[in-house]
Structures are given as C-alpha cells and as structure tokens.
Amino acid sequence: MGPLTAAQKRQKEKDKKKRQKELDQAREENALHDLANGTPGQRKEAELVHITKQLRSLNLDVVDVPADGDCLFHALAHQHGGSMTAVDMRALLVEHIRSHSEDYIAFMEITEGRPVTEALEEYCASMSKSGTWGTALEVRAAADCFHTSIAMITATSVTVCGSGDTPAASAQWSVVFYQYLYTLGSHFNATSKRNDIVADDDD
C-alpha cells in the first residue's frame, strides 16, 4: 500500500477528530447519568468531571479553602482580594441582608403565617454563627454588597449574580459549589484565573 495522498491524510484526521468528539460526548452523557443515578463514588467522579469542564471553559482553576463550615465565606474573602477574613465576610454579609431585608426575603423559606421580621432575624442570627453553611443567598448578597458579579459554578450550571446580564466568562468573582465530592457534605471553593496561579514561596 502506497503513501497516503494529501486528501486521504485530511480525511483520516477528520475521522479521528470525529471519533474523539463522539467519545467525549459519550463520556459526558455517562457522567451526567452517574451524577443523577450513580453510586456515591460515581457521583463524586461525575461531579469532578463536569466541574473541571466548566472551569476549563472559563479559564479558571480551583483554589482550595478550609472545609470548616465557613467555606463560602473563605471563598468570597479570597475573591475580594484577601484583605478580609471569613469571619469579617460573614459578619458583613449578614448585616447587609439584615439591613436590606426587602431584597432577600423572597429567597428565604418562611412558614406560612409566620411574621417575616421574626423569620428574618432567626435566619440572620443563625447565619452569623461560625460553622453555619452559607448558601446562594449569601452569594447574591455579596454581589450586591460589593457591587460586583459573581459566577457560582456547579456540575450542571454556571449562575451569575449581580451586574445585570454579565456573562460567566466576564464575572469578576467566581466560586465553585460541590454537592458530592467532599465526604463531609456540600462545599464551596474559590477560583483563580489559570495564568494568575502563583506557587507558594515555601514550595
């Protein structure tokens, strides 16, 4: 058999790319199935696959923060630039929610017939305590408080809070939410642009 012609080489490369695309699509479909119906181990792996894909599409890397119940506030403090602690961030956002309650009441689960002010105060009192897990409501409050846009990345979606119709790729802050990967439960991590990652001096 003689050498391939230029046209045959192009077709061979085209077929190779097509097969790879089909394999990638099948892998993604399997991961989505595992995320919804798999064993705990399969869900962890599927979540990691999909979040990694989301991060790559946004040119982001994960920055790990402590899994101590304050993870969202650690992540938001990191995105703010590191001048605030998780304790500072939590206190600021709780006070923001309390003083702008009309903007957040609709996102709270309030038992029918219960006074709104009572439910709000109970929520803020609980959220002010170290170790209470933060939620998407606090992400929204951070976007409002700092007049910024925050992308919340999960395995199945990227949601942007704040600054109107800002696309995820242009969001000024980004946090990652894991539902299955961590043994202790749900967890938030921070992010950094891939070309902004700097090795620790101790490494």
UniProtKB/TrEMBL annotation:
GO MF assignments: cysteine-type deubiquitinase activity
Residue ranges occupied by any OTU domain in the UniProt entry: 60-194
Picking any one GO biological process from the record gives: protein deubiquitination
Show the segment(s) annotated as Disordered.
1-29
Task: Kindly give the Pfam families that the UniProt entry links to this protein.
Answer: OTU (PF02338)
Task: Enumerate composition-biased segments (Basic residues).
Answer: 9-20
Q: PROSITE patterns, from UniProt?
A: OTU
State the protein's name: OTU domain-containing protein
Q: Which organism is it from?
A: Bodo saltans (Flagellated protozoan)
